[in-house]
Each structure stands twice: as C-alpha cells, then as structure tokens.
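S1.2 Input.
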Amino acid sequence: MSISDNRPEGLPPAVTAFTLRITVAPEDAGSACDLLASRAGLAKSRVKDAMCKGAVWLTGKRGGRKRLRKATAQPGPGEVLDLFYDARLLAVKPPAPRCLLDARQYSVWLKPAGLLAQGTDYGDHCSLVRQVEVHFRLKRPVLPVHRLDREAAGLMILAHTKAAAAKLSRLLQDKAIDKQYRVTVLGRLSSESGTIELPLDNKPALTRYTLAVYDPASDSSVVEVTLGTGRLHQIRRHFAMLGHPVLGDPKYGVGNKNSTGMELVAHRLAFRCPFTRKEVCVSLETQAETIIS
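S1.3 Output.
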C-alpha cells in the first residue's frame, strides 16, 4: 500500500485539515473506510461521515475519478483513494435551498447565500448540487448550467438530463436567458444608467446597470444589473473598479462592510422553455412568483 499525506504531525486529526492518498496494493484487504481510518488515525464513524459528505474520491486503474460514498466499497489493486479531510468544513450545516419550479427535465432553485453552487475536493454537502440530489432522493442527475458565487443569493437553473443541460447551455450561449441581478453598492452612481466595459483577466467584460434608488442615509445605491459577458465575479469586480463596491463583499472594495452579508441577488430568470416552447419567468419579486405562458 503506497500512502502519502500532508497531515501535520502531533496534532489531533479531528481538529486539522489534511489530505491522504492511498494506492491500493494486491495484499491490502478491507473496505475503503477501513483503509482510510487505519492510516488517518480517525474513527471509522468520522471517515464514514466524510465519505457521505463527498470528501473521499476513488480513481480507477484506467483513470476516471469520482466521489466514493459507500463505506463498504472494496477498492481493487491499483486504484487510488483520496481523503480530503477538514473537520471544520464537515461540521458545517448548510443553509437550505428552495425549489421554485420543477419542470422535470430541469428545475429552478433559490440558492441562499453561503451555499456553494458545486462541491469541492473537500466535500459537497454544502453545495446546491448535492442538496438537490438529496431532495430528489438521488433519482435524478443534477447538472448545473451556470454559476452563482457562494456569497450571493439567487436563482439557479439545474438540468436533470444531458439533453436538458445541452439545450439550456445553448440558450445561455445565445443570450436567450434573461438573468437580472439586484445589487446594493456603496455611494451614489454618477448616472441613472450605464455600461461598464472594463476588461477582466485580459478579456472583454460588459456589465449594464440601471439605478433603482439611492439612499442618502446609508450612502448606498440599489441597481438593476444585466451581464453581457460572464467573467469570474464580474459584477463585484466591475463595481469595485468604479469605486462603488457591492455592500458586504468580503473580497472586493473598501469601506463596504455590511452586517447582513453581501447585497447581490440573482432575482429574475426568463426564457423560452426548450421543451414546451412556453415562456417561463421565475422571479423573487412577488413571493417567488413563477409564470409560465
């Protein structure tokens, strides 16, 4: 059994974050849980919890990497087990998302702030994708077709078939899905509406905004935003570059701390359903109203 890990020596495993890799040898016996627990110095219950929450990966002899959740699984010789253990992350209880539209081929969800869109190597129990898989009792594939920052709240579309993922991705590429964001930024914007075309990561980036209201008491502006491109953290970076950072943004801007979190919400989605050809509008404006016509 070939093993590598980066766990700090002399520290209790329960309070450390570490990775552990085991390459299974022909003489190795026992389940994946047994092998990982014995080498990591963890109780089997902790390893089982980590497996259930998506922190264990199995790579086959011919490649192909997937999360391994079944504690009794018997890995074969030449296969590789990876444990990404972080006790703090595994103890987090994620906020719950809410389904606003179930169209069978796809669904639309309200992702709360603090929930990842997808998981990481260290687990997926704090991700929208996993929460939705569990909601549907693991009977539907869950394929995200766009992203939303962990710190942001708002609407996300998830596909449940490869065909739906392809069709919805095509709508996004063709800019046929109207996505609108409501954002509160620091200060008063110099114009009622405008376009930000500052490049990001050496690529063109375009953000359009309209001022909804300015509050002099808090010196903040609520703006309606649409995107012409989809760069990483585009809204947050663009407004910070203008000197009007998003309130509560933990990464970009100065003087924009906010006790209620980041004020960026993806509040409206509108598109023509690629299966029924009906117009679909999902909005948070009127108690999560969904309109299909």
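S1.4 Remarks. Residues 7-15 have pLDDT under 50 and may be disordered.
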